[in-house]
Structure formats: C-alpha cells, structure tokens
Amino acid sequence: MPSPSDVADASSASASLRDRWLLWRDQTLASPVFQRWASGVPGLRWIARRRARAVFDLVAGFVYSQVLEACIRLRLFQLLADGPLSLTELAHRMSLAPPQTERLLLAAVSLRLVERRRCDRFGLGVLGAPLVGNAAVEAMVLHHGALYADLRDPVALLRGQSTQTALAAYWPYAGDLGPSDPSSAQTRQAAATYTSLMAASQPLVAHDVLDAYPMHQHRHLLDLGGGDGSFIALVAERHHHLNFTLLDLPDVAARARMNLAERGLQHRVQVVDGSFFTPPQLQGADLVTLVRVVHDHDDDAALAILRTARTALPVGGVLLLAEPMSETPGAEPMGDAYFGFYLLAMGQGRPRTVDTLKGMLCASGFAHVRLLPTRLRLQTQVLLATASPIPDSWE
Fold first, then answer.
1. Over the stretch 178-233, which tens digit does the pLDDT of each residue have?
2. What contacts 144, CB < 8 A, 6 or more positions away?
3. What residues pair up with 123 in beta bridges, in sequence order?
4. Nearest alpha carbon to residue 256 among 275, 230, 277, 281
5. Segment (H or E) for 18
6. How far apart are CA 187 and CA 229, in angstroms?
7. Are 24 and 30 in contact (CB under 8 A)?
C-alpha cells in the first residue's frame, strides 16, 4: 500500500503536469501564428471561427443589449405579434425614418430577434417571439439603464471608488432599520420602483418554485421579504387551502396590502410591517419562503435572515430558499458574471454556490438541506431545508 507521502507526491506530480499542459495551451492559443494557422485548417476552422465569434460577442455584448432595448421601447415585438409587416409599415408605426428602421431591423435579424419574410416583410424571430408580452424581461431590460451607468468604469467599481451608484440609490429603503425618513417621497418612490420590478419578474421564479415543491402538506406559509405579494398570489392560485403571512418593510407592505386586496386575498394573508433583522413575533407557519432575498445581502445579514426564518418555524418545519446561484451548471455567466457585478454595483450581497448556502443553512438551525430540480436553473435554483432544534446558545 502506498504511503501518504507517496500519494502526496503523485498528486503533486499530476498537478504539475496539468499546470504545464495548461500553460502550453494558453500560450499556443494566444499566438497569432497559431491563430492564423488554425483558421486555415479545414478540421480546425470551425473551432477557430466559433471561438472568434464568442470573443467578439463578449466585446459587442453591450451593443446587442441596446438593440434589444430599442426593440422593446419601440414595441417592435408587439407590432409583429399579429404577423409580418413591411419596413414602411414598421417605420410609420415606430415613428422612425425608413433608413433608421432598416438599421434596427437588420440588427434585430442578426440577433435572431426578427426574421426576414416573403415580399420584403419582417416577422418575429425565434428569440423575439418569446418576448411578446413578456413583462418580466421588458422590465429587466428597461431597468438595465441604471446597471450600465454603474458599470461604465468597472475597475473603479471593483476598487470601491464608485460610491454613488444608481443601483444603490434604487435601494435606499432596504437597510437594517430602513431610511431615516420612511415617509419621504423619495423613499416611497424607491420602494414602488423596485417592488414593481420584482413583481413583474416574479412569475418567472414562482412557477419554478411551485413545480419543484408540492405544498399540499402545509397549512401556513410565511413569505419573508414578500414584496407586493405577487409570489403569495401565485401560490394561492394553486393551493386554496393555504393561509399566508407576508413580512416586509412598511412602504412595501403597504403595496402588498393593496395588491392582495385587489386579488381578493386579504382574508387569507396577514401582512406584517417589519425588518428581517428586528422582526416582530412570527408564529403559525410551517413553511417559510425566501425568494430572491438572501443573495441581495452580505454574509452576516444573510445569516441573520436565515436565523429569522428558523425562529419562525417549529422543529420539522420547512424552508424554501429560491434564487440564482453561483456555479450553476449551464448558467455560470448568469450567477457569477451578471449577478456578481449587479450586486457589486448595488453595494451589497453576492451570488453563492449551493454548497455555501447549505453551510449557511446548517449554521442557522436547519438540517437535511437538499437541492430540488427546477426547469430553468438559469433564473433560479431551490434549496429545501428542515428546521432542527434550536441550540441552547441561541436563547
């Protein structure tokens, strides 16, 4: 049997060999001579072209996103929803000059948002059709103006030199105890704007959560940070036996009461004003949901939120934690690039891996944590955790 030192030496040799291979690969791919050679070899040409396209897409991604924003602001997808239209018809309906209409249409065709059709007409493309009436995507695209402004100097952002970001201003009511003047018009507007964005995008996440976990065995759901109640409203449509409690800050809770009353749910939902960090007494729930909440907070705050969820549950109660996660297979750029820099611009929070979140849940009084399968891991993953006995040290 090999000794531990033999195993360590073999592992070190393997790592060294891999490092040398990766260094050779990197230097080869960086060589202009190799690049020209590979682009001319029939067997390698398609790989070279595909990687060149991928690199260019990284460079041009901002322009692509602005083309998409122009299409949404000009309602191009809605105009084409009933069938193809000519350039002249589209120019008239979008109030653009024909040459600029053509420029937008050609850009949209290249991005597969629009397709050329017979008789010099244009119709929806395979990527444009799913955007017709998609309020969630529209809201996110229009919201990105603030994110792009914050990312105009990413190095300054990384060095902490961009102290006044647009996204941070989007969250003036989301501190520990709320703003100094919670009744101010600025605070109310910030709460309304952000809550509306979250509500518009809620169906994308809510249906995945509901498909991933059956709630028939539960009787009372507590939604922490429940926004305007859109998630609860979608749950209530499927599970008529459930009662609900929603906790959020006062300005947001006021919107929840109005929204839920308009849906006829005021008798099934108790809306509570409060903070994650100084919560009122919350009792009666056997299921707690945290939907796109934890990743918006730094580690200490996130642990406090998870502990609030635990104290609200009896032993054996269930927590569902749903949010985009770091290192999600097939969706790595969404978690690590998009949300990594979005939350950096926001000034708090970070995307976390499944294993990191499992560790935080176990440290917060939960056990038997497991990842549930979801249909679209790109937008959310769901962790299920069971409340274990609270340690004496918490008392």
1. 433 444 555 555 555 666 666 666 777 888 899 999 999 999 999 999 988 999 99
2. 65, 69
3. 115
4. 230
5. helix 4-30
6. 19
7. no
72: nearest Cα among 97, 109, 126, 108: 108
**Helix, coil or strand: residue 114:** strand
Tokens (6 digits) for 27? 């230097």
The answer to whether 87 and 120 are in contact (CB under 8 A) is: yes
H/E element, 16: helix 4-30
Number of H helices, E strands in the chain: 16, 10
**Burial (Cβ within 10 Å: 0-12, 13-18, ≥19) of residue 220:** middle
Using alpha carbons, select from 242, 260, 276, 266 the residue that is nearest to residue 348. Answer: 276
What's the CA gap between 362 and 351, in Å, rounded?
18
Rounded CA separation 393/257 (Å): 37
Which run of H or E residues covers position 39? helix 32-40
Burial of 105 (0-12, 13-18, 19+ CB in 10 A): buried
- Domains of the chain by start residue, with CATH: 42-131 (1.10.10.10), 136-394 (3.40.50.150)
Of 94, 52, 98, 54, the C-alpha closest to 77 is 94
147 CB neighbour count, 10 Å cutoff: 19
Place of tokens 């891991």: 377
Contact 209, 223 (CB under 8 A): no
For the chain, the straight-line distance linking the first and the last C-alpha, in angstroms and rounded, comes to: 51
Query: CA–CA distance from 395 to each of 106, 136, 187 (Å)?
Result: 65, 43, 35
pTM of the model: 0.81
pLDDT in tens, 245-292: 999 999 889 999 999 999 999 999 999 999 988 888 888 999 999 999
**Is-contact 328 395, C-beta < 8 A?**
no
Count Cβ neighbours within 10 Å for each residue of 50-65 and write b for 16 or more, e otherwise: eeeeeeeeeeeeeeee
Beta bridge pairs of residue 223: 246, 289
